[in-house]
Structures
1.
Amino acid sequence: MKKLLLLIALFISGCTTELWAPEYKQEVIDGFYVKSDSGELFVTASSSAYLFKINKNFGEALTLSREVDFYPSFNDFELRKDNTIIGVVSLTLLTEEPSPELENQLLSLGFKKDELLKRYRLTNLVEGKRFMVEGDLPLEKLEKRQRIAIAQPSTFSQTAGKIVATPATIVIDSVVVVPAVFIGATIMAAGGG
């Protein structure tokens, strides 16, 4: 009997672990725009966009990536219930021995020499907000798209703001969708008086 109870307890704990494990969505990033005066990074994907607050050095490093070859990596990205997103972005210089001028520029931007890779790397935690895109954005696209795995909240309801894109401007209009269960519970509580 004890063995059966132990087996059931192990089975239930395994089910609970699977139940609470985050669901991952693959997002394909196809462009980015750095607005250095306000410290913002605007990232575009197929049907959504992300707006991140970044520091000046990270913005300059991203702009430098248009001229210098870096290997980007994206880790631990998580979309939260309030539609904020958080994750870690790393830029690793592809060449082992940069010119002295480039090396000084990298060091001034906060790059450090990775002892294992023997290359310069900059790692930054980014936090921002997710929006849904309507229309085509008038931004420069990446030559090579990047895939990112994003952990989704377990009870995700679509609360993304809307971005209405026109050739001249990008207008961000936040729209909040209240889940129907919440409305039903409110009506029942009001009527149950």
2.
Amino acid sequence: MHLSATSIPSGPLCCFRSDAENFHGSRRILEVIPVIATKRAPSLQLAISKSKGGIGVITMRDRSKNRKPLQRGRNLSIEAIQTVQALKRAKKDTNSLEREIQSKVRRLLKWDLIAVLRELQRQNEPLLALKVFEEVQKESWYKPQMLLYADMISVLASNGMLDIVERLFLYLKMESSLDADTEGFNALLKTLMEFGTTGLVMDCFHLMKAVRCEPDKSTFRILIDGLELKGEATLSAIARKEAEKHFGGLEFLEENQDLTLSSN
């Protein structure tokens, strides 16, 4: 039996069940089973399964459920998705890329613009993400945030773009009204330590003190453990002295080791 597009009922989604036992000559009977439609038309994917009785069931599932959320509790909007796709298509041509930035990126609302930045970082598109990051910095609502810098530097460093990392860190140091965000500084310290840039690690720690951001125990664990692993005994000793000033001792390092051993 040939089932044309016009013979499929419109409206609610349907699945089709073919019964292998119901043959009349060469004809196969198809039963249309209505399924309750969702409010939005999803992106669908067909899946075929068979039961023991030879019944094949064609079902449709929503592929959009597989899409990872960009931010906690927030999915990419249609505008954000289209912008990401347009930027990726145009990335090999400077003129085309600039047109897409002007026509799409600069028209996005705040949360969509941040969403595009996060998605490009997630898809490991460092140079495109950097372009969008620069557009974020031009917005009137922009305030320098350590976590934004930490995420951007992490993507660049993981792609070996350490020269750009150094330039971006210089821009970070020139930012006015930088928030005293301990979590953001710790994230950046961890990234810089991971990619072996100990000079920038210490610069970041000095910047942390310059903006009067209070280091916590995690800050000193990152510094002391990381510097010792890299054989930077002198720098590690400096970090230990700083930790002693803040906490009156280094017992918290032993506490961390005890927690690690107990978890194993």
3.
Amino acid sequence: MMNPDSVAEFLGGVPLLQRLPSSSIRKIAEIVKLEHYDEGEFVIRNGESKGVYFILQGEAEVCGNSEEDIRPEFILKRYDYFGTGAPTSEQQADVIASSKLTCLLLPSEHCSLLQPKSIWNADEKQGTCAPVESILHLDPIEVNLFQGITLPSAPKFGKMFGGQFIGHALAAASKTVDCLKIVHHLQAYFLLVGDYHIPVIYEVHRLRDGKSFATRRVDAIQKGTIVFTLLASFQKKEKGFEHQEVVMPPAPSPSTLLSLEELRERRIIDPRLPRSYRNKVAAAEHVPWPIEIRFCDPSSSTNQIKSPPRVRYWFKAKGKLTDDQALHRCVVAYASDLMFVGVSANPHRQRDLKISVLSLNHTMWFHRHFKADEWLLFVIESPSASAARGLVSGQMFNQKGELVVTVVQEGLLRVGRTPQTAIRAKY
């Protein structure tokens, strides 16, 4: 008899199940039955309907083919699955144990757990999840292939938002690893400008699966072209040495600060800003962001006034997120690109000067667990800008002062140019 934790750990290694919400895997771990078979014994016969089998130990043969010999692709091993109820067209054939065989059986009446409405929450009801959780939803196509779309309510900025690429790609990678392994590092490259009018295919490459670590590469594809790529490393939780030298800087409580919506209203009547800019802000269609942002210094909210290359703001997801650390890290990855590389343009801003800012690369290190629907302080500074490139680094702290994430990004800074919405080279 296996304990549920050991069962959940095994199920987390089954590629079919990795795309499920972690809550679904835990439920399946409580439901599955342990089945033992001797060599030569029938596991399931053609036409029978018992459920889905996951091979824990041993091997099995799929029989009933026109060829007399058993070809290699019809030998089933550890982590393979078969039976009725799987979301693929399984063989209508006999399955026989070719050695001593141990399987976990998910009975047919519970196979609906394999088809959740969301990759994050098996119990999701329409319209009840946080806005950013809906934005970060992906549709599984194959085990290593996902599709993402840009929702009407999602930020766009005239092109596909870079944070959406990061969040979607990390979500795709997270849905191909054991749910006990959580991302600790990612490196991303923005190759081409994305078109938010068409879906994006996220293709995951399984580079390594170890006992403690796993590595994935994700290519974002539009019209057959790779427009974005991400490399991510995942680690199973373990105890080790800990220290933190950096101290969270003093910051006012987020409850005392204005929201972006309130700051927008103030900008419209701010006499320091050009009338043309204020009229443009007032006339523009306002689409609320799925992330709540509150600047520690309200003057940071305008791009018309020269300011130091540093910013501090509190942020969190609007609404309540599903309790899944993988989701919370995807949300922070998404939010990290909202107001980041533009800080490197702050010393060069002036009235009516257009500065084109495009992300080139993005790196994140996740140090500690956190909740993305609770306030996090993002401390950003730009140490340098040169050769039309700006560099920014940022540290995220929880309200206890613990460093939870470090971020570094390089972006393209140009005067008087705006990015094209079509898919073209960024340079």
